[in-house]
C-alpha cells in the first residue's frame, strides 16, 4: 500500500515538475521575437505601445510584461477599383483605378493603430478624391488629361493618408469606360460629323469643278470671240476691197454695190442654214427691201465717210440677186447707154 502511495506521489511530483519546466520554456521563449522580412512587429508593454522590432531575431521582455503583436507587412500593396464617376458635362463613366500604397517605415505606430481596416478606408478616400476631381473635368478631358487627373488624385491621397502612416506610391488610371448608351450616342455623333465633312468635301469638289469649268468656258468664249472678231475683220476687209473693185470696174453706184453684197450674205446665210437638212427657212422681204436697207446704211455713213449716194431705184419687186446678175451681164451695155446719154446731153446744150 505504501508503495502505491509512493508511486502516486512520485508521479504527481514528476508531472508538477514537467509543468513548471514547460512553463519555464514558454516563458523563456517569449523573450525572443522572430520577424519575417519586409515586416515589423509592434511591442506592447502592459498593453501600451513601446516600440517595434524589424526583420530578424530580437529580444524583448518576457510575457506577460511585454508582448509582440502579429507581424505587420511593410510591402507595397495594390487596390483595384472600378469607380463610377460623373463628369462636369453630366457624363457617367466607369474609371478603372489601381492604387499602390505601403506603410511609411517611420510611422509604423500610426499605420498599426490609426486605421481599423486600412484597405477599405483607403478605397473610400480614393473614391472621394477621384469623384471630386472628375466633377471638374468634361468627358473629353477625362481622356486627354489623364496624367493631370492621376497627379491630382495622388497628391490629394498622399496628403490625406500621410497622417495615418501610409504612403501612396502610385495611382494608375486607365481609359474611362462610358455606358453603352453613351458609346452609341458618341458613335452617332462621330458618324454625323463624318457625313458633314464628306458633304463639305463634296461641295468643295463640286465648287472647284464648276469654277474650273466656268474658267474653261470663259477662256473658250474669249478665244472664240477673238476668232470671230478676226474673221469679221477679214470679211470686212474683203468686202471693202470688193466694193472698191465694183466701183472701179462697173457703173454701179455705191448703193447698188452694197445691195449686191448684202444679197450675197443673205444667200450664204440661207445656204448655211439649210446645209444639214431638217430645218425650215422662212424668207421675208425682197430685193427692194434689201436695197432700202443698204441705202439707209449708206445714208448713215455718208456724213463721215463721204460716200456718194445715188437716187433710190424705182420701186418694184425685182430681187437684189437679179439686179446683180443683170448688172454683171450687161455692164458693157450699161456703159454704152451712159455714153449715149452724154452725147444727147451735149446736143441739147
UniProtKB/TrEMBL annotation:
The keyword Protease applies. Pfam families: Band_7. One of its GO terms (cellular component) is membrane. InterPro entries: Band7/mec-2_domain (IPR050710), Band_7 (IPR001107), Band_7/SPFH_dom_sf (IPR036013). It is a single-pass membrane protein. Gene3D superfamilies: Band 7 domain (3.30.479.30). One of its GO terms (biological process) is proteolysis. It comes from the Bacteria. Residues 30-190 form the Band domain. It is found in: Membrane. GO terms for molecular function: peptidase activity. Residues 308-349 are annotated as: Disordered. Residues 308-324 have a biased composition (Low complexity). Residues 335-349 have a biased composition (Basic and acidic residues). The chain crosses the membrane at residues 7-28. Keywords: Hydrolase, Membrane, Protease, Transmembrane, Transmembrane helix. This is Regulator of protease activity HflC (Stomatin/prohibitin superfamily). It comes from Pusillimonas noertemannii.
